[in-house]
Each structure stands twice: as structure tokens, then as C-alpha cells.
Specification:
The longest helix is centred in the C-terminal third of the chain and has 4 residues. It is built from one helix and 20 strands. It is 2% helix and 53% strand. The chain has one domain. By secondary structure, it is an all-beta fold. The chain is globular. It holds the Pfam family DGF-1_N. It comes from Trypanosoma cruzi marinkellei. This is Dispersed gene family protein 1 (DGF-1), putative.
Length: 210
Amino acid sequence: VFGGEYALYASARVVASGGAVLRVSGSQVYAAHGLVFDIGVEANASAVVVNDNAGALTDGALLVLRGSASFVSGSWLSVRGNSISGRLLSVPPYPRSADFAQSTLTLHRNAGSGPVVMDGTVALGGAGGSFVVGCLTLNGQALQPMDYRSAGIIGKFRPVACSVCDVDVSCFAAATRAMSGSCGCRCAEGGYGRDCLPVYLPHVDGCNRT
């Protein structure tokens, strides 16, 4: 359980490289603010995973990236399967942005409340950048792709429906060989667990950092 003023507050720039993983999953979050990275995040061939959390926020979003946010070389930011009273994601606003170069942002199968699902600007730099969006509920109403812009989802995104098997929704693509017939991730060498993350993480509640 995360509580208090901040569920998690990082006052320094967070750097994840060479197959690192920062994961917060299966947690209860009841706080004024969610997971706040105040100076920013830099990920290189690494994953930041915020999946399957539930709770309520009185201010801000479940995941807040301030300052700068850079994901390169096959990195993955996954915000998936969360049910939160509040916003789900906040990234730097224009003229800054969350930058994804040959990397993926997944915003899928989440439920939030308030005026928007997310705020800020997402930029896809170079070939291979992907912003995957779908299966979202806001204030109890299922959103359609035509609703995304008014819900704060700005930029070039690829809609993926709830029932579609998609490697960018479910898997750390850089360590995934294929999708199985039952929508599971089949890991390549160096991929572990349900999501084929680049580090083996035990199935525990809360926060894992490796």
C-alpha cells in the first residue's frame, strides 16, 4: 500500500540503462500524488512498468514524469491494467515532451476519472517509436478512439482494441520472440516472466527496482 502526500517521490533524475527495470505493480495507491519523478526519467534498453494498480489520488496522476522523459533503444513505458480515481499519466507539456526513439509507450486497459486520462506531450522520434492506446475507461465510460484527443491523448498514437493480441501492449518487445495463440508473450533470450522483461522479477506486490 502506498499512502501519504506522495506514493513515491524521486527528487533526482532516474536513469535506467542496459536492461534495467523499474516496476510498480499490484499495489494499492491512496495518496495526494502518485508516483512522481520530479527531474525526469532516462531509459535506454530498459523498462518502466506501472501495471495492475488500484486506488485513489486527490491531486495529480498515477505516474508523473516532470522535467524530461527520454526512452531510447527499445525501451518501454507500460501503464496498463490500472484502476485509479484520478488521472493515469502526466508527461512534460509542450514545448517539452516525453520522447520515444525506437521505444514504446503503452497506455492500455486502464480506468481513470476526472476531465482527462493524461496530460502532456508525447513525441515519437525516428523509426520504431510507438504510442499504443486502447481499452480505456474515463468516469465509467468506455472511450472510443474518436474520444482520445478530448481525453488528453495528444500525438500520433496507434489504437488497439481490448480484445486484440498485440506485442506492444503486452510485452517488452525487444526481448519477445512472438505472441502465443492465447495472447501470451513468448520470450527471446534475455526476456523473463509474463511480459518478457529484461530482468527476472519475482511476483511480489509493490515496487521492484533492479
